[in-house]
Amino acid sequence: MTTEADDLDRAQELTTMLTDAFVKQARTGAAPEQVQNADGTWPHTECECGEQIPRARLLLGKIRCIACQEDFEKERRCRR
């Protein structure tokens, strides 16, 4: 026989697990994909589409232009 307290404990555990997973996923998505070289240059300054990566995105360590990043994220969502 389960009690209401047991049900609430399980619900809290599930909520914590899902929240932790979401936070981990968000941090992974926001993490830099490249690091600036010691001489101030970037390993990747051109997106896979051939466009230059905007400086603001380079400073965030990104390796795709905005359009390609949006396509990348849509593709990742569809695979789930």
Description:
The chain is mostly helical and 80 residues long. The chain has one domain (20-79). Helices cover 57% and strands 0% of the residues. The protein has helices at 4-30, 55-59, 66-79. The two termini are 36 Å apart.
Instruction: Tell me about the largest β-sheet.
Output: none
- The portion of residues assigned to helices is 55-70%
Q: Count the E strands.
A: 0
- Give the tally of structural domains: 1
Order of helices and strands: HHH
The N- to C-terminal Cα distance equals: 36 Å
Mean pLDDT: 91
Instruction: Determine Rg (CA atoms, Å).
Output: 20 Å
Question: Number of DSSP helices?
Answer: 3
Question: What's this entry about, in short?
Answer:
The protein contains 3 helices and no strands. It is an all-alpha fold.
SSE arrangement:
Layout: H1 4-30, H2 55-59, H3 66-79
Give short descriptive properties of this protein:
mainly alpha, 3 helices, single chain, 80 residues, elongated
